[in-house]
Amino acid sequence: MADYLATINLSSVDHWPYELKTLPRPNGRDTRAIVTEYDMVRPTTEPHDILVDKEGNVWYSDFGEMFIGKFNPKSLKLTEYPIRKFKDKAPTGLLSIEFDHVGKIWFDTMYQGSLGCLDPKTGEISYYPLAPEYNDDRVQLNSPDCTTRSTARCGPRASARRISTGSIWRPTHGEVPSDRPAARRQECRHL
Fold this sequence. Notes:
Elements: H1 2-8, E1 47-52, E2 58-62, E3 67-72, E4 77-82, E5 97-99, E6 105-108, E7 114-118, E8 125-129, E9 160-162, E10 167-173, E11 186-190
Antiparallel strand pairs: 1-2, 2-3, 3-4, 5-6, 6-7, 7-8, 9-10, 10-11
């Protein structure tokens, strides 16, 4: 990978051997936009990922605190769902949220070491914390869907929810190749 990246960056030449082409800048009617801002319930709210459901509700994860928010732009109603804290000394906040195939919202809790599932119809939240042997202070879950993004920034301590099938998955780790000591192979296996 490093060899390939060295061929496309400027580490060995002072300019690219091709002309960079950009898209034309918008002008006239193309620059017209309406931006509407709404106040949040708490001034410390930090929306991170945003989803829009079939009814037009806007769902967001709160990066700084343990909440998922739902905003109805028609009624201007904002509802917050408090998320359970698993570790008192770990940083709080959420990153990713994703709809599954039945419309439930799956989310990570970053350093709290759990995945969660919010049922938008009932408001009920189910939690799937990592097993204690995989859930130390280094754990950071970043995505509820191991099919699209990295799930953990913690080496062997990881877990994921495969949204397409509804299964909970945990990576397993093979031998480290002798020619690449920093590399780790991983694959998802069903729990």
